[in-house]
Task: structure prediction
Amino acid sequence: MNLKSINGPAVITDPSSLKVASDGYIRLTFEEFRRIDLVHLISGLDEDGHEQVLDAAIQTNITGYTEWVSNTMPAISIGWDWTIKITQGFGGVYIRVAEPRGNVMLVDSHGQDFGPGKSATLIETVIDEIAWQNVVKSYINHRYSG
Amino acid sequence: MQVDKGTQKQLPEGLYSKVIGYRHKVFVEHLGWELKTFGNTEQDQFDHEDTIYMVSRDEFGNVSGCARLLPTTQPYLLGDVFPQLFNGLPVPDSDDVWELSRFAAVDFHTKSTPEAGQFSSPITLMLLREVMAYAAELGAKRLVTVSPVGVERLLRKAGVHAHRAGPPMIVDGHPIFACWIELEA
Result:
């Protein structure tokens, strides 16, 4: 998935400038983050209960996770949960549930941490702009079709 | 829920044997992990005389959960077996970083059979909080653990500040990752 198709300010991210801090986070600004290419790593169905479904108050038994990574070193890692909402006439629609998880801490222009909560909220906006659903649906169909 | 903690010798007599039997039941029989086993018990090279255990038991004395704590200044699972999960950083080696491993909370003795998940028991969050508090008593400021990605949900639900150290790696078709757990107040 290429996030470069999303227009943003002309900030050029140099992937070689990414560093892992001693606390494990990779720190970058929101604009830098949205210019990072993320590729699909793996998706799967949940195999251990339905707790996140209950949290999301969506009535379905089909839930899962998806994991995406950057092609940088060090690598950015983002994952989130999804559920399939059955809609009349359209079959199953993949919907993200709960906040994304990852190793990114977004910072402001002064390098100050936004904190895990605000970082996750901003990362959500990027996830929700990309067409991850088709990638995950295709992968899930292939993985579990056997 | 009663929680015992300490080294093998410090645990009540016979409890360590129950713990390694419980681990076999959870990790080998239920989850299908390919681990070193001895009969119906599960142990590895990180189970030694200095290893710290935490064990929860129900009112009848049955083991309902367990955890293992190791200082990162000694050999530990993530450092020795999965160093690549640290995304290029050196593995932790510090008095204030401890590893949490073999964490499980599955109650095999309730009337309603739990799902086969590693953290299916209602006591999961209570045991996790006990583990975090005791690790802090031991001097830890942070925990690190190798886990399936579902652990992040659990930690978030518990309001714990936790995040991954790097991308997951795929083992037997399932993603596992190194997770930092911050113990700050």
About this structure: The helical segments of chain A are 30-34, 51-56, 116-127, 132-143.
